[in-house]
Amino acid sequence: MSSRSAGRALTAGLLLGAAAAAAQPGRAPAAPAAPPPAPALAFDLDGDGAAETITAAPSGLRVRGARGALELPHQGAPRPGTLRAATVSGERLVAWELAAPGQPRRLWVGRVSLSGPLALSELAVLALGPMGVDAEYSAGAELSAAGLVRWQERPDLVRCDGARLRVLAQRWDVKSRRWQATATSAEGASLVAASAREATVTLAPIKADASPAAPADVFRARYATSQRGARRADELAIPSELDDGDPGTAWRTGDDSDGAGEVLGFRARLDAARVLRLRVRPGDVSSAAARRTWGRPARIWLVGEKQRYLAVLPDPVASGAPLGAEYVITLPQPVEQCLSVVIEAVHPGSARGLAISELVAETELDEDHGGTSALVESVARGGQEGDRAAVILAARGAAAASAISAALTPTRELAQRRRLVRALSKLTVKEAAPPLTAALREGWMGEPDLEDAVEALARLGQEHALGEVVASAQAAPAARLRAVAALTRARSSVMTTVAGVGDRELRQAVITGLATLPTQTILAAAKSAPTAAAQGDLWRAAVRSVTSGSAEPSTAARAQLAELLEPALSTATTYELRYRLSTALAELAARTDDRARLARLLTHLASRAELGGPERTALRQAVAELAARHASAGLVAELTSLLRDPDAGVRLALARGVQRAELSEASEVGASGAAGASGAAVASGAAGAAGAVRGAAPWPAEATARLDEGLGEMLATDAWPELRRAAATALGQRCRRSGPAAALARSVDHDAAVEVRQDALVALVTCRAPKIAERLMQLWASSAPPELRLRAVSLSVMLGDPRLAPALARSLARWRSEAFSDEAALRLAARAAESLGHLGGASAA
Prior knowledge:
By secondary structure, this protein is of the alpha+beta class.
């Protein structure tokens, strides 16, 4: 069947189905929906006493009457809408709401001409409905006996009794043929009420100190229906000038408004808030001339959800009231949550417009009325109300700090205490510091709040309080560390008072912070340190201050510090202090290439009679590692000598120091180029590699060769496998040269400990020694111990040489065939399969 035949069959089936459904008993075919009737009205357009009939149809307006008929066609086929007619100042107007599909709503307004035959001409087309990019506001218009009016609305502009406010309203003036501002109105609501009561208005006494009033913080101004410069509803901003506590700022109505009918909206920030009174400074009180220029409110309505009170304000200009005069409006009953101030009448100024310098809604919770304690109680209870109360308290400064501190003492519930301290951390007054410090010292604060509390103390400049937190053994470790970080940012000398305090992590943080201070400040504190631990940390910080930082300290500064450390070491009485001083001297001697000082240090440690064997050994090991880590070429002889020290611990420490040396990578770069540097970085870690490159210069070839020889001798002859392993790892940073490479190769082939052979092989791969790929292939195919062969297979992945995959694939085939009778072959086959998966390529597939 063709597609055309199928279409005809489907159409026929649908028609037959519809006919069968219509033929069923009790069932009739659906009738088409009737179009809605066209709106019509009867109105005397020509003033002859007989009404004409006006009909709105999709094609346009039709008028029928005794004087004839007319049609006003309209393009766009609008849907029938509302139709109105009215006589305004003797002129007859017709308004027709248009709602064409896909087009915004509009109100078409026509004017009737009575000269000659009946005629209807277009007066205006007004936009209706949502406006703005995101429909932030809407436009409205209507024609009635009161006139043709247009206005704007916004969803949040609602009077407290529920009436929606029409703002920026304008009325069409027939005589001037212009739009003129008219009073803002509320849709469907009147202020006239038989039960309305009048509020009491009194003149408040002038403050002797002329201090500004406290800004409102519980009931806040949220909107005004008019504002200077606003031409659209979405441009109306929060009138913060009303309750900012500054009489020098004033809210003013827009250019076209005299103030009558404007509405100011206030909202509570807390559920429990109730307005008791309002403080008003009418007009612009920035100067006497400004107060005379702008209008002042005369009669205002105070509207709550159910209450309506009238307040009559005297004119401060006419009564001669002082410029700072403030009127207090006391409400007959408190108003909860929402208050609308509707201006009914105005004392006019010399210019059009109204100004109000201050209009503050006072509640039971305001500071002047003892409400701070109630807010603190709300914070302690928690929830959203508590969070909002904490925001209000943040603006109350010292009073809030005192109230929270008073509430903390008797409060035992931990959650409440934490909420109170959280609010305390938001304050910016010094009175908040003592209770915050006490809370941090006592250690019961929650982890999320520690940072805020410490930052609050830092923001207030409370360095000594931060020092108390660091010194407190009861404070949480996180709080102590954060306090150290804050003191470090401030480069505060208070850190000298907490040296030697706390666990290892805290002391390291303090040392790091101390090192940011001037060296002389640290040294002065070290001389009078109360404990050996404090003295040791201060000495260590002093060394850091001359050995690290963005600016390279001078050799003279390091030598001068070493001169002070030597006598301090000779009088030190504790192991910890001797350890700090010994390692500091070793680092300074290494950094200044001072062979004599390093020799004196080693001699002093060896000859000091009161040192026991374990302590002497531990100190010499620490000195050896620090000397190797920071040494320059001038100390090679001493380092090589220590590689042959009779104490195995000293030899091990020295090898590890060389491995971590700041100069290792620079030596490799100077001798062998970037490839060697890359290998060293892999071996010793990125952090050490970065440190090695900074400011380091290559060693002379002779010095490098002597250290290579000493490490090679250790690798070949030392009796301890652990020391040979350390020597192999250290040589791994240097094996681009022939000497270290040969020493490592001999170790791979002949060392008695398989662990040493493995480490030597890793070192060769790490530094990409010449012919290392061939060595790996030979090794995994040899009769070497299985562990070494397995390591060779694994290292093929690290080396990444493309030649390795085919050779490894061939070995895999052999090992698989041998795996049934050889456990080593089975392990090698499994390891080879894994390595091939990483190497990839055709052989692996």
